[in-house]
Amino acid sequence: MFKKKIIFIFLFLASCASNFQIYEKTGFSEISFNNKITSNLKIGQLLKVTNIENGKSVLVKVEDQKKITSARVIYLSKNIYKKINLDEKFPLVRVETFRENKKFTAKKAKTYDEERYVKNKINTNKVEVLSLSDNKKTKKNIYLKYGDFYSEYYATGLMKMLRLRLGDKIVYKSSKKNSHYVYIGPISSLKNYDKIHLKLKQIGLAGYDIIIK
Fold this sequence. Notes:
By secondary structure, this protein is an alpha/beta fold. It has helices at about 1-20, 80-85, 115, 150-165, 190-200, and strands at about 20, 25-30, 40, 45-50, 55-60, 65, 70-75, 90-95, 105-110, 125-130, 140-150, 170-175, 180-185, 210. The longest helix has 18 residues, at about 1-20.
């Protein structure tokens, strides 16, 4: 009888853990037209939204569920922008599901289909904020980074493929010892970023790191 109780409790805990999956996505947000927190996730889902530049975060609940097909990861209210001091030019955020009761271990959600192509070779959804100044007049640009790659051959092949799609001027390669990187940039506006993101998504290469500098 005692063993049966242990098995039942174990199965219950396992079921609770498997029913909760972590969603974590880094990218650009946008001010919602109806001033509601809008996401792909279900209404009422608790999310932690973090401003990548300053580390400030806020907990929000999804108020409107829509399938987001653009390059945005979430739509936020103006009030949230003010709370975490989001830069309206490049509002870079990390969005994570948040659970008040962390009793159970959650499993990572599956990577999006468009990222599977490069998931074993490229670390997705990582962000670096480099050379940021307190001077508001400083001009910042977006750079997209692939790598690091141990094989220069693979990095060179990726660079050539991206140049065919995006042009020679904004795609380049950088190497340090046995680490090789491919960059796209500078990208001066979100409008241009959206166009590039769409092209990358179409060829299954939306798994880049975002750098603002």
